[in-house]
Amino acid sequence: MIPSTVPPKYKITIDHDKCILCGRCAKECAWDAIRKSKDKIITYDNRCGSCFRCASMCPRDAITIIENPSQGRKHPVWTPEARQDVLNQANSGCILLSGMGNAKDYPIYYDNIVLDACQVTNPSIDPLREPMELRTYIGSKPEKLEFEYVEEEIDGKKVKKSKLKTKIAPNLKLDTPIMIGHMSYGAISLNSHKAMAKAVKRCGTFMGTGEGGLHRDLYEYSDNIITQVASGRFGVNSEYLSKGAAIEIKIGQGAKPGIGGHLPGEKVSAEVSMTRMIPEGSDAISPAPHHDIYSIEDLAQLVRSLKEATRWKLPVFVKISAVHNVAAIANGIATSDADAVVIDGFKGGTGAAPKVFRDNVGIPIEVAISAVDDRLREQGNRNKVSIIASGGIRNSADVFKSIALGADAVYIGTAAMIAMGCTVCGRCYGGKCCWGIATQRADLVERLEIEEAADRVSNLIGAWTHEIKELLGAAGINSIESLRGNRDRLRGIGLNEVELKALGLKQAGL
Amino acid sequence: MSKEVTIDTSGIYYKELNEQINKIIKDNLDLELITLNNVLGQRFIGNGISKNNLTIVINGIPGGDLAMFMKGPRVEVYGNADHAPGNTLDEGKIIIHGSSGDATGHSMRGGSLYVQGSVGYRSGIHMKEYKGKTPVLIIGETAGDFLGEYMAGGIIINLNMQSEDTEFVKNSMLGTGIHGGVIYIRGKVNKSQLGVAADIKEFTKEDLEKITYYIEDYCNEFNYSDEIKNKLLNSNYTKIAPISSRPFKKLYTPDIR
């Protein structure tokens, strides 16, 4: 017999002296990792993903979850993870499925970038007493403004009045450069969607629907919603398209560049089937490419087609994964009538992705922003599209650095979910999220209290916005517009010359 | 307020033309017929139009994405159509008295699309259905490869009128990734012509009943004689349907230890 048991990654320990056998932990664990027998709590470590629901809910703090020290012999190459993946695949013959973002130890360039501040010669600004402009417009900007002069008679006097001749493309007006990216209803619960919708409305910003259609309960937030059209075209009809403030075409996603998505049939509940407009319980398959887009001209056609369908009133974004030739692709998009290009870095999260993609495909968002910004400037196309950056943005400093590198605004995803209680256990694809976020099971969804979650998310966006104002003030800048692409206010630290060049940064001290 | 409007589209750019059409629809609530003459490659005609009891007649050759996202109207094309007519069609009927390009009927979620001639590659790709809405794509002559890829619902009928029903059709990669809906092909199909996830199923009496209405309707639309209609109804069809509605169920293993 070939042993195929994989040692559990985590170990649940119950302090039996503290435990009062209330059984709460067993009720809270949707993964059946804990059961209550008559006089004992029994744990099944191999089912535990360390989501921490049981430990958080234990009234006696009697539960500790630790990494299982018994993982077999230590080896620098054949780590427990490498061995366990081999065993798992040798047993099943299947593709390894994972959730959340890239879990490999790649450099995080944000952490090697430092910010500037004013001292003496150029005084810093205190945002408490001086206005700090964070208003951001997402969309195409005209190359120049043209005016015509019309002669009017006012009080018997002939006065020449100037009128704007240039047609301004539709733009989204943001009070803060932080939006919530596209996570579909289906991948996450309706309560999460409602909470985020409330939060973005409060913060004067936007959230994406993802490729799951728009639930009718969210129609009231439609002024703050960006709808998505992806390769599966789920839930897409003219009503849906006109319900949002903008439309996003999803070409790629940072967590899984180059492939489509499969929402497993288990997550296609009656409600999800309704918004996606597919039968209940069937797999929702988004093919890898859009089959009406095989070239940049075809992409332009879809952009224009969506604009035609909405009478050219809504901005259309195109989202791509950050890949090696991202700059050339983004430049192509800029020439297609699109209003913004969304770049999703390889640390971006997902409900489900093959592990081999999540951990190995794509490039970091930091270098992608600067490459795209540079290329669009070189080609004279920077005004034609806004740049929205996403994929692994963890705090206000990351937002600030992204904008200084050249982005107009950012999308956050995982950060908003953590605000709502996500513990990054990474098993979103399992449909049993104990925190009521990445699940459709009614009893679990109920656990997410909408108002409370909305407060948390709006608190987070509010706090970051406040921090960005402080950082701007410290840099002596009173408008986010003046930070955009202002890489001179950044310095690299601990990066080699090539990395600095790719980021377009100077070494700290220079 | 008029019930019928005719536009000579020669030399009009697509954006302007579609703007005109939308304005006419808005201004004429009783409008029943728009006739577009001399159409030459203007794209997106009928895009996103949501209106019942309206017919759009196109004399000429419309450009890509004809009637995309359309809900309700009837579109009749006297000429060929470019790629992806009926893209993500919601409701309504599109009749093409000619052939059409690649990705015809892409992602249709309702309504029907009848093509008299042939269609290009990847037609009927990712058609889907939900509750009362079942899209129908009928192709008179040949279909390019990859017909009905990723199909999630709806009905495709490929009549292959250019050949006899005893012959093998030439398509390959039929229904790759199909997980819903059904494809009926007049003629014979070898298993090797199927894509992954597709299967040949027995063509039953129920299937014949299911397609009879559509074939009759198709023949009426194109004014085919009873002789042709009966020949089509008494032909041999190959039914292609998904092996399972969960083709990817066994593809993945959770990364849990």
Summarize the topology.
The complex is a heterodimer of chains A (510) and B (257).
Chain A: E1 10-14, H1 24-28, E2 34-36, E3 41-43, H2 53-57, E4 63-67, H3 80-92, E5 95-98, E6 113-115, E7 136-138, E8 147-154, E9 157-164, E10 172-174, E11 178-182, H4 190-203, E12 207-208, E13 225-229, H5 238-243, E14 246-250, E15 261-263, H6 270-276, E16 284-286, H7 296-309, E17 316-321, H8 326-334, E18 340-344, E19 353-354, H9 355-360, H10 365-378, E20 386-390, H11 396-405, E21 409-412, H12 414-419, H13 442-445, H14 450-474, E22 490-492, H15 497-503, E23 506-507
Parallel strand pairs in A: 11-12, 11-21, 12-13, 13-14, 14-17, 17-18, 18-20, 20-21, 22-23
Antiparallel strand pairs in A: 1-4, 2-3, 5-19, 6-22, 7-10, 8-9, 15-16
Chain B: E1 4-8, H1 14-27, E2 33-40, E3 55-61, E4 71-78, E5 91-96, E6 112-115, E7 136-139, E8 152-158, E9 180-186, E10 198-201, H2 205-221, H3 226-233, E11 237-242, E12 252-254
Parallel strand pairs in B: 1-2, 2-3, 3-4, 4-5, 5-6, 6-7, 7-8, 8-9
Antiparallel strand pairs in B: 9-11, 10-11
Large-scale geometry of chain A: globular
Rg over alpha carbons of chain B: 19 Å
What spatial order of strands do you see in the largest sheet of chain B? Answer: 1-2-3-4-5-6-7-8-9-11-10
Cross-sheet strand order for the largest sheet of chain A: 11-12-13-14-17-18-20-21
Summarize the main sheet of chain A.
Answer: 8 strands, parallel, barrel
**Distance separating the two termini of chain A:** 64 Å
Classify the secondary structure makeup of chain B into a structural class: alpha/beta
Counted by DSSP, the helix tally of chain B is 3
Quick recap:
Chain A is of the alpha/beta class and 510 residues long. Chain A has helices spanning 24-28, 53-57, 80-92, 190-203, 238-243, 270-276, 296-309, 326-334, 355-360, 365-378, 396-405, 414-419, 442-445, 450-474, 497-503, and strands at 10-14, 34-36, 41-43, 63-67, 95-98, 113-115, 136-138, 147-154, 157-164, 172-174, 178-182, 207-208, 225-229, 246-250, 261-263, 284-286, 316-321, 340-344, 353-354, 386-390, 409-412, 490-492, 506-507.
